[in-house]
Amino acid sequence: QVQLVESGGGLVQPGGSLRLSCVLSGSIFSIYVMGWYRQAPGKQRELVAAIGNHDSLNYADSVKGRFTISRDNAENTVYLQMNSLKPEDTGVYYCYAAHLHSYWGQGTQVTVSS
Question: What Rg value do the Cα atoms of the chain yield, rounded?
């Protein structure tokens, strides 16, 4: 059974930084495409960033140059470094893993507010 556990969310002021982590258990991490989605109140869930199992990268236009996704296959972990945070980055951030099937974490709240 694949499980994803996120951590690292919280409250931060505009311009600040946070790093999200997501640990995958129950399968071989390196075969999965890993990524982060977010959902703001009243809005649809949207892709933030993804990293392939050969380290190909994909970012939403709204976060390019501010967010960096990375993975550590030895630690079964994917990270999302978020810099220069804006109020519009507020939302629940979900980790996902995809390989034949898709799996989701429970989500972690990120709030950017002064």
Answer: 13
CA distance 42 to 63: 20
pLDDT of residue 108: 97
Percentage with pLDDT > 90 across the chain: 90
- Give phi and psi for 11, each to the nearest 5: -100, 130
Residue for token digits 């969310």? 9
The set of residues, in sequence order, having a beta carbon less than 8 Å from that of 68 and lying 6+ positions away, is 49, 80, 81, 83
The amino acid that residue 112 corresponds to is V
Q: Are strands 33-39 and 10-12 parallel, antiparallel or unpaired?
A: unpaired
